[in-house]
Amino acid sequence: MKTYSRKILFLLLALISYPLCAQEIALQLYSLREQMKENPVKYHEMIAQWGIQNLEGGGTYGMSQETYDQLLKDNGLKIIGVGANYETLKNNPQEIIDRAKHYGAKYATCTWIPHTNGEFSFKETKEAVDLFNEAGKILKKSGITLAYHPHGYEFKPHEGGVLFDYFLKNAKHFDFNMDVYWVQMGGGDPVAIMKAYPKKFPMLHVKDRAHGTPGSTDGRGDVESNVPLGTGDLDMEGIILQAKKNRTKYLIIEDESSRSVEQIPHSVGFIKKILDR
Q: Would you list the domain boundaries of the chain?
C-alpha cells in the first residue's frame, strides 16, 4: 500500500512540474476582413461553428465595444492576441496594453516594421530589436507578451547568416509569432528555426503556399497563393509536430485568400488530424 501511495505521489508531482501546454487552434480575423464588412455577426457565428474559440484581433467592426464584447460572449469566442502597431509601440505602448487587458489577451503582435520597400537593412533590424526589447519590458509588467511576426524581408544575408538571426539572438523581452508562410517566402526553413529556438515561439501563424509560388524577400506576395493547410509546398505536418514538441500554445490560422471561408474548415481539420496522432 505504501509503495502504491508513493507511486501516486510521484505521478502527481510529475504532472505539477511538467508544463501542460496543449496546442490550441486560433484564427487571425484578418482572414475574414472582407466578410466582416458585410456581416460581422454572421461570420463570428460561423467561426464558432468551425470549432474555433480563440481569435487574434482587437477591432470591433463598427460596433460599440459593449456590443462586440457581447457578440464574442454569445459565441463562446475570446481574443487571445491583439495587434501592436510599430509606431504605437514606440509612442504609446499603454494603448496596446489597455486593449489587450480589456480582452484578457496575453499577447500583442507587431506584424510589420516600417521601411522603404526592398531596402530593409541591419539599421532597421537593430532599431526594431531595441524597440521590441524596450516595449516588451513595459508590456511584460502588465502580463502581456510582445511578439514579432516576421514577414520575409528579414531573411537578407547578414554576417554569414540572415538578418532574422539577429532578431532571434537578441530578443530579451519579446518572443515571436512566426508566420511560417512568410518565413518560407523569404527563404527560411520554419521547422529548422523552431528546432534551433524551441522557446521563442509561443504562437505560429499557420498558412500554406500553393506549389510553384515564387519566393519574395520584400514581404509581399500574391495572397491567392494561400491554400488549405496540408495541400501546399510547406511541411505543415512537420511544422505542427514541431510546434507540439516545443509546446507552442496557439496555432493561428491565417488565410488571406478570397477563398478563406471555404478553406479555413479544411485547415482546422488538418491541424486536428496531426495533433491527434
A: 22-275
pTM of the model: 0.92
In order along its 277 residues, the chain shows pLDDT tens digits of 444 444 444 444 433 333 445 899 999 999 999 999 999 999 999 999 999 999 999 999 999 999 999 999 999 999 999 999 999 999 999 999 999 999 999 999 999 999 999 999 999 999 999 999 999 999 999 999 999 999 999 999 999 999 999 999 999 999 999 999 999 999 999 999 999 999 999 999 999 999 999 999 999 999 999 999 999 999 999 999 999 999 999 999 999 999 999 999 999 999 999 999 8
- Return the CATH class of domain 22-275: alpha beta
Cα distance between residue 169 and residue 17, in whole Å? 28
